[in-house]
Amino acid sequence: MSGADGLETAVEDGCAIGLVDAARDARGLEQVRGLLKASGLGLDADVELFATARDASGRLLACLGLAGDVVKCAASAPEVRGEGVTARLMQRILDEASDRGRTHLFAFTRPGNRAILEGLGFHALAVTDDAVLLENTPFGLSSYVAGLARLRRPGRRIGGVVLNANPFTFGHRYLVERAASECDALHVFVVGEDASAFDAATRLRLVRDGIAGLDLGEQVVVHPGSRYIVSRATFPNYFLAREDARASAAAGLDLQLFRTAIAPALGITDRFVGTEPLSPVTAAYNAEMRWWLAEAPLDAPPIAVHEVARLEVDGEAVSASRVRQGLASGDLDAVARLVPGPTLAHLRSLVSPGHRR
Amino acid sequence: MKAKKSPAERPSRSMLFVPGSNAAWLSTVQVYGADYVMFDLEDSVSVREKDTARLLVHEALKSPVWAGVPVVVRVNAINTPFFRDDLEAVVSAGVAIVRLPMVTDAQMIRHLDAELGVLEGKYGSVPGTTRILAAVESASGVVNAVAIATASPRMMGIALAAYDYAMDMHTTHDAAADESQLFFARCAILHAARVAKIHCYDVIYADVNDTEGFLREVAVIKKLGFDGKSLVNPRQIEPLHNAFAPTPEEVERAHRVVAAAVEAEKVGMGVVALDGKMIDAPIIAAAHRTIRLAQVSGVQVAGGVR
Amino acid sequence: MSGWQGRVPTDAVELAGLVPFAGPAPSTQADKDARRARKVVGSLTEAISRSGLGDGDTISFHHHFREGDLLILQVLAEVEALGIRGLTLASSSLNACHGDVVGYIERGVVSRIYTSGMRGTLAARISRGGLLPHPVQVHSHGGRAALMASGELRPKVAFLGVSACDEFGNANGTSGASRCGSLGYALVDAMFAETVVLVTEQVVAFPNTPAVIRQNRVDLIVVVERVGDPSRINVGATRTTTNPRDLLVARRATDVVEHGGFFVDGFSIQTGSGGAATAVTDYLGERMERRGVKAGWALGGITGSMVALHERGLVGRLLDVQSFDLVAASSLERNPGHTIVSASEYASPAAKAACVDELDVVILSALEIDLDYNVNVLTGSDGLMMGASGGHCDTAAGAKLVVVVAPLIRTRIPTIVERVTTLITPGSNVDVLVTDYGVCVNPRRPAVAERLAAAGIKVTTIEALFARALEICGRPRAVETTDEIVGVVRYRDGSVIDVVRAVAS
Amino acid sequence: MRIEVDAVAGTLESSDALVRVSPAEELRIEVTSTVEAQFGAEIRRTVAEQLDRLGVTEGLISVQDKGALDFVIRARVQGAVLRGAQARPDWRKL
């Protein structure tokens, strides 16, 4: 650098840090959309707010978004790429998240930003060619995995199933039954995000109660969902219902976590999944599952993937969306043929007077 | 027991404000040569960070970074839920001076005095050594300035804060435009300070980049007789100190006055004369002040660093 | 018959050993295309092929675009495509923008490096060892010219990026789009390289005068889209700093310059770049006006601040080896008193005269300075290379008053240490250290200390400042290294003054 | 002192440190620092000493240091622990 010197002194970056509330600041949001677009990124619908850096004239130079507990949609103008501004944006996001009671955060970004985020206290959980998922604690995943390990079941062949169960149907029960019949033990994970028609606690209860009827006892363990399995953090597109290039990258992160962290903790050797004729996002997820769990060269043993054909009733596959449609049209008799007793009882309580939705 | 040096012996032109929540500033600003550094727990610290700023200031006061430097801490006002905790945090760390904002009457100072006494006892400081700087920011504070300034032997200074005062007076404060709306308040606290024989500090000048406006205001308050000014950025220190520095001619004359006085005393003369003019005690005192100021300003008679 | 045959006797004793005229060479002057084709080639690949570059040769570059250099990586890509390996990369300096050189080292394209300094991932990777088969030779700017003069460093091909040149290769850094200003470092390459390839963005009409690199040194010319990004010559530091710590150090340094004994009419000075150095220049202007003192000349990397002093009549001449910003680059064009010096004229100990030897005052920086005033501007206290030798030891050797400015502490890392991690400039050449915590004077310079004290400048000792730093920071653990030597530090005379060892992981 | 809830103190700015605590049945401490090579051991000692002084025997403690001086690290550890324990400081013991 300098002729006689060898040193340069950092100068103040001169940026002003502010906020754009995605729900209220339409103009600010448009500017953010423009900046993201210039960086080849889209604006995710679930981002609640953006921390922004502007120059003295008010021009938007950089942004960083917060969606629930996920930091994402980071972009900056070419002239400001650097750690200083990102650090200030992140500090603002941490403060805003903390005000909302969120201290444990994830970050979803391009692999190129990994080093900067690691410098800001984040730790990488999974990396694909297009995306990296990080969390802002060194203990998050390791604590979760340690907790899981305590629920290990003995056996040689250990199965895993992930259900949203929105709500739990005979179709889900059939999948669990089939999987259990092929394994010494089965771990069932119920998606934990409250982004579905039925809240997470209800879905978990209906799964537990519905499976109890199968009398499989200790052989099946039903786990509440976590941030590390089919969550807004690991698999945002599942919840954004979006079909863009990121669908694959996001599923890769989720599946990588399953294979490298969750499965080893429980000794899972086989993953079971229903065939998916209806939801394109879930179908894409299934398609990628085989690659990431069974084939990808990862530092964890491969997991066999089994697609189980859907149970059919009245000549049509049983699905949760079919149940919801029946519920919406008030046809409880049709619904009764699709769901186990505990689910039906819950649905009846919803349509009884005073609970009509 | 920790003993503290009396603040009256030190120059007090500049009092640099530092947010008590800012770790980098608390780690570095001692180098800028402000006569006093003031850690702020009040306005510059968000409610969210009051607790952590208190801890940071407490640890800073005890750290080797600030060892031997008399630090001022601005606590939150008496009627806030933060006041008691602030005070305990800083007295337990041996703070030299507590700046109390929003002082409206002498009773507040007596209350603070009593609280300090209790805490000094609890934490083993020499009783009575924690000094008080009162900031008046309202009409009643200005009107009660003399009572406030003389309310406690702990009082080391009185300061004016313009923003709230201007609002209380149904006007606004825009230093760059005009300073007439502060004229009465400045005179009032100055008189109070001189009656109480304590320091008197002027308001902050918020626009760091407006050196010209800053110096204009400094010229006004220097002429009025202020000891110094509260500052919001280290870059304001040097211009302020330069403005307060006596000229080489003033220093030279001061030395001659003092020499004449010493000579007169030596020969037992009751009356001192210089260049045929009588010199009385106030002139001699002023000459001593000029020499002290010159010493801290780095001014030398033979034209050294200015 | 053309009338020239038969005029010269074939057997005259007087002509023994002389060659008789055999007719004029075929003229290219009439054919525009042929004239152009003498030097201008279609691509970098063609230029490399025609240069005869082969395995194990040395290629050289200048770093006038600093962080905006786009040439080195372009050339390495072409060289690799041609299958050439084992090259010595000799750039006058390397920057953070050259991180991708790591890949070329890993793939065997580059196996030796000569440079003034390194930073970023390239520097970090080399510092950790196991990457480069031979240690990096770290030289000063003057030392580079001396290494070329001695023949140790003799580029087979110099690739010199310029914004514009004519078809014969007359080039300067002040015409065309991507102007870098001075071409002082490149001049040495043009002088000593076996083959000189100008890589330009534009071929302009002959003659492109005033030429800095002259046609008689240029072999080949190739046009590329971009050679460099001048906006990154001085990334982020073009405006005057508002950092109060820089300003504080700068004000103290200015006091030292004013009272250090050389602040008299006609004095000469070099200040360097960066926040504090620029501020020194600004403050110095005020002092010069107040005291009625004018500088005869300023040397080195020239900044916009120095140009301002020149244009205000406070500095007579600017001798510019490297333009630190676009203001300086454009001043070369409009100010006749602002001229270019080559790295050799600037600082080479092997030159018949170097400007540094006439220098009165230099302001220098330091990553570390030890209790003996030895200075390190190359490695951080974590042992990783992150700076550049630059003209540090050259100017320190020549100047009469050498002032090192540095913050005492950089985010908990003390600048003063017991023993510098890497020695670049020997302490016997350093006179004063100015920090934000105080000023101290090398005990070898009692006269300077006396002058400063007499002017009322508070002077402390380096030991006191060191103690204060330790009190504030704690004592840093010494860096752990392996036996592998990753860098050889050459003093300006070519001797080895220190080595850099790989940082233990 | 027992850490009851997740809590954070400090910032990621230069010369500061961000300390994060979470309840747990064991004590785990993770430190990353920009000055790891020079001060890693000293920072760990300071963190452990502060936790000891605050009587913290279990919890997940992560410290992201940006070149903070010792007093800053102390204050940030105290801040995060007191917030996590929902407790008030004992100024005599700090």
TrEMBL record, chain C:
Q: Name one Pfam family in it.
A: CitF
Q: Which reaction does it catalyse?
A: citrate + acetyl-CoA = (3S)-citryl-CoA + acetate; citrate = oxaloacetate + acetate
Q: Report the locations given in the UniProt record.
A: Cytoplasm
**What InterPro entries is this protein classified in?**
Citrate_lyase_asu, NagB/RpiA_transferase-like
Range of residues in the leader sequence: none
**A molecular-function term among this protein's GO annotations:** citrate (pro-3S)-lyase activity
The chain's coiled-coil residues are none
What GO CC terms are in its UniProt record? ATP-independent citrate lyase complex; cytoplasm
Q: What is its main location?
A: cytoplasm
Keywords of the record: Cytoplasm, Lyase, Transferase
EC number(s): the record gives 2.8.3.10, 4.1.3.6
Single GO biological process annotation from the record = acetyl-CoA metabolic process
Which PANTHER family has this protein been placed in?
CITRATE LYASE ALPHA CHAIN (PTHR40596)
| Protein name stated in the entry | Citrate lyase alpha chain
Q: Which organism is it from?
A: Propioniciclava tarda
Its lineage reads: Bacteria, Bacillati, Actinomycetota, Actinomycetes, Propionibacteriales
Automatic annotation (TrEMBL), chain D:
Q: Can you state the subunit structure given in the record?
A: Oligomer with a subunit composition of (alpha,beta,gamma)6.
Protein family (similarity comment): Belongs to the CitD family.
Keyword entries, A-Z: Cytoplasm, Lyase, Phosphoprotein
Q: Does the keyword Cytoplasm apply?
A: yes
Q: Which residues carry this modification: O-(phosphoribosyl dephospho-coenzyme A)serine?
A: 14
Is DNA-binding among the key words of this record? no
- GO CC list: cytoplasm
The protein in question is named Citrate lyase acyl carrier protein
Which terms in the Gene Ontology molecular function aspect does this entry carry?
A: lyase activity
Record's subcellular location: Cytoplasm
Q: What does this protein do?
A: Covalent carrier of the coenzyme of citrate lyase.
User: Which regions span the lipid bilayer?
Assistant: none
Pfam family of this protein, just one?
ACP
Broad class of where this protein is predominantly found: cytoplasm
Q: Which gene encodes it?
A: citD
